[in-house]
Amino acid sequence: MAIRAFAATKAGGQLEAFEFEPPPLAPHDIEIAITCCGVCHTDLSLIDGTFFGLGDYPLVPGHEVAGRIIALGKSVDHLRIDQRVGIGFLCGSCGECEMCQAGDSHLCPAQEGICVGRHGGFAERTRVDGRFAVPLPDGLSDEDAAPLMCAGITTYAPFEELGLAPGARVGVIGIGGLGHLAIQFGKAFGCEVTAFSGTAAKEEEARTLGAEHFVASRDPASFAHLAGSLDLLLATADGDLPWAEYSNLLRPRGALWLVGFPSQPISIPGIALMSRRSSVTGSLMGSPEQMARMVQMVAAKGIRPMTESLPLQEVNTAIARVRAGQPRYRMVLSNDS
Amino acid sequence: MAIRAFAATKAGGQLEAFEFEPPPLAPHDIEIAITCCGVCHTDLSLIDGTFFGLGDYPLVPGHEVAGRIIALGKSVDHLRIDQRVGIGFLCGSCGECEMCQAGDSHLCPAQEGICVGRHGGFAERTRVDGRFAVPLPDGLSDEDAAPLMCAGITTYAPFEELGLAPGARVGVIGIGGLGHLAIQFGKAFGCEVTAFSGTAAKEEEARTLGAEHFVASRDPASFAHLAGSLDLLLATADGDLPWAEYSNLLRPRGALWLVGFPSQPISIPGIALMSRRSSVTGSLMGSPEQMARMVQMVAAKGIRPMTESLPLQEVNTAIARVRAGQPRYRMVLSNDS
Asked: Which of B245, B274, B278, B290 to mutate to test the interface with A (most CBs of A within 10 A)?
């Protein structure tokens, strides 16, 4: 049965109602009735044709999917009909390379993305490889789960990977779709979180989310007093930041970790890294195994994305609001069909 | 008794014979009769007054010291008279901060350097804190040990810190004082080493030192075929390299590691790091504990610095040769007095 969806038919265009025949249900596939799908800035880049050359039209965006399993391929034995699951951008990998064998399927050079060469989650249903589905715990609603599939895992993974001890000092640059989750994860991992935002009015909210300190960071002079103090500085903003000044905030062995997309190459004096054995790294997404651990932590610790919801039919309104930076903080499309 | 040494009395000047009274032998100090001292590019920067503002005149350079203990402070109980030891740049730390407590005294914010606020190793004797002395094993000569105290530890530490498994793929950019040691350490750690040099004529030597592959790297096109292949890319050259192209050679989770001093800030597209969860880091020196493990490995594996030796009295000739890049590869001053 054809799947009803919304698609961009040309770069930057409005989304239009679109129907397509799903591919056959392969042995490892599952079919999901989508209840919620988040709207990510990456969806806008895909619609606009500015996401590193990826995406073809017609293009159904959406890579923050939550829903219910309605069909199982014949080889799927770890999931069941009616089970609630989430799907992020990653929906395929070779399974054979060193990355896949090490549990790093999200780093597989042959990885497949849900909106690249197949349609995404702005739709009523989807068929995807069940090995990339994340079972959702009871304590986590579909609306809350959806943004975790991209914004959540992207901000969760650095904490898990660094293995920060409780008490570690963490900075989060930017309080938005990613940053408001990063602050909560930082608190849940027991870290002392400093939030950096160009918007001074966000201080109260940052503290409510779990930040112990707040810096109104329009001017590097505002954070110079934090030099040498941070184990992790998570950059969730996507602008061209004063990287040299920010890198100066790292403690020895500290990491500046990019999770937003800097608009320009980042430029840092080598001595800033060498003298402290500090590093600059970055990541996108995480592995399915990390996602599974994330949703358990979210349910256990009461972490909640701040979301705004609109029906899927109002997808163009939703996109316009995301383009304007209006949602506080994550837009979710809900499917009533 | 006064110590005879050679000192720069002004920025960029020739070194001149110089005598100074050593400080009193403190409880943790040892006095060393210096047999050999390496000449490092950092010494030239110190002489020239261009090393990040450090150094005062008269300045006795030299931070690659090997020699024999001739006096012990009253609290030194882990060393003995006549024992052979080495001393690098690091000769003091607070002992109390988190870095020191974690064995990272070389990252202590209050660390003390041998040529900064005290005189260095272009001298017949020196008094330093014995806790920063590295006992030298029998299989390692003083002339070979001296360059290991800076060039050696700087290139050894990244291998130890990354914990690379045998078979890991390592690139070494630059075959010089640092690079010729890095290739040998890479081989000793069981890695598959690719040497990058702008000088095609160094291929045979690189292979003799242990490199399995060689790239004449004047043009980034020469190494584009290595994209996504390296676990560690050690940059020992001090120029402004094509960082974006080099970072593209990293495998997922790979590290570009600076050990030379880039002349300009390094500039890398964020997506290059994010898409592979790769990193840029850097380091100077290593801890005394790492140095102790290094000299054991060097002795066990037959690693040998390639050195050229001149008497200490010919220090200005030695410096001129280092400035001109003539030694193959490390200049060592020997003390016959």
From this structure: B274
- Report the SS3 class of residue A316: helix
Q: B117 to chain A nearest CA, in Å?
A: 19
Can you tell me the distance from the alpha carbon of B67 to that of B82, in angstroms, rounded to the nearest whole number?
A: 9
Are B130 and B14 spatial neighbours (Cβ–Cβ below 8 Å)?
Answer: no
Name the residue among B202, B194, B150 with its Cα closest to residue B168.
B194
Report d(CA A329, CA B221) in Å as an integer. Answer: 44
- What is this structure's pTM? 0.96
pLDDT in tens, A64-107: 999 999 999 999 999 999 999 999 999 999 999 999 999 999 99
Average pLDDT over residues A297-314: 97
Cβ A273–B258 below 8 Å, yes or no? yes
How much is the ipTM here? 0.95
Nearest to A274 by CA among B147, B272, B285: B285
Shortest Cα distance, chain A CAs vs residue B233, angstroms: 14
Task: Give the residue ranges of DSSP H helices in chain A.
Answer: 41-48, 98-101, 142-147, 153-162, 179-188, 203-209, 243-247, 270-274, 288-301, 315-323
List of domains in chain A: 3-135+306-334 (3.90.180.10), 153-282 (3.40.50.720)
Q: How many CB atoms lie within 10 A of CB B228?
A: 13
